[in-house]
Amino acid sequence: MNNNFKMVAKTLFGFEEILSKELRNLGAGNVEEGVRSVSFEGDMGFMYKANLCLRTAIKIIKPIHSFSVRNENELYRKIYTMDWGDYLSVDTTFAIDTTVNSDNFTHSLYVSQKAKDAIVDKFRDTEGKRPNVDVKHPDIRLNIHIQKEHCNISLDSSGRSLHQRGYRTATNIAPINEVLAAGLLLLSGWDGQCDFLDPMCGSGTMLTEAAMIACNIPANINRKEFAFEKWDDFDEELFRKIVDSSLNKTREFHHKISGYDKAPSAVRKAIANAENANLAEYITVERKNFFETTKSTENHLHMVFNPPYGERLDRSDLDSDFDVEAFYADIGDTLKQEYPGTDAWFITSNLEALKYVGLRPSRKIKVFNSHLESRFVKYVMYEGSKKAKKNLSSE
User: Fold this and answer.
1) Average pLDDT, stretch 90-110?
2) Is the pLDDT of residue 291 over 80?
3) Which end of the chain has less Cβ packing within 10 Å, N or C?
4) Predicted confidence band at 192 (pLDDT cuts at 50, 70, 90)?
């Protein structure tokens, strides 16, 4: 008997292809890419596995109803007519998250309020009592998405965003989102088959995500809870089997994952977060200024980092004499002079500053860091000159 149903995994712009690959590798059916989302099919156990294992998903939602809607009265009426007893009871607390992209509906909070009114009025009229709203820790979290005149209503199986992995208790200024970090690592081709360095590691998010990918550790193994654990049909035994099966697929890592930061507080936080994730044995963090370092291995090195300066920081967080142009020039000079045999990737929202790196990127990918349009760029540092490399390959 086929117990599969449709689900939607939400993600960040530019990560749709990576997420669809993740889903196929996990065993999802009918995978289709959308915009900042990927739809797929699976059973209840697969929903548990998707929440536990996907690195580039922000939410896993289960659509339960859809309809066309043109105004607030029609929205209220159609939500009121739904059989909410299948999902809620008068003793169930709930919350509603809404996203709108429509000329007819411009305020997501207003849509949430209207939907809430329809649901509680339905219970009051049929049961004489109403369920309560709890925006922080609801039993059921609903997701409403209105695109033009089409409305989708879904159950949110994740709860808090899946970027909140559970290991990061200490953060630095403007820490990178965990899903963004994991997505950048996968975009860069990181697979744990060589040494890794984040030379400006901050609180260590990139290091921890790199270690989890290298060891094939489920992305959300450190989370305390998922929303589906409060559902009436939650199968705790099945979930435990999914967790155990996923942990049995971890692998050994035989290379080094290193991080540098010149701020002592950042180094302490990065070490603490690696320990929280139970990955301290794989990650080394040192207080160093990247611009004063040299490559510490003769083997190939994979480097991914998020430079700490740019629009994402308030100007008060920067040194008063900070020179953006010199900073990016130093990145290029350090890579060129001290890091042969390295694939170096970094993300920046300062597109103008990229000109001062002084190197031609071999790849440039458009991504978003929060609301900031950014570029994820790759620089290939050859062992010798590019010309010498070509001469060797032609002999």
Assistant:
1) 92
2) yes
3) N
4) very high
pLDDT tens per residue, range 228-286: 999 999 999 999 999 999 999 999 999 999 999 999 999 999 999 999 999 999 999 99
Q: Which pLDDT does position 1 carry in this prediction? A: 46
Domains, the chain, ordered by start? 5-156 (3.30.2130.30), 178-217+238-394 (3.40.50.150)
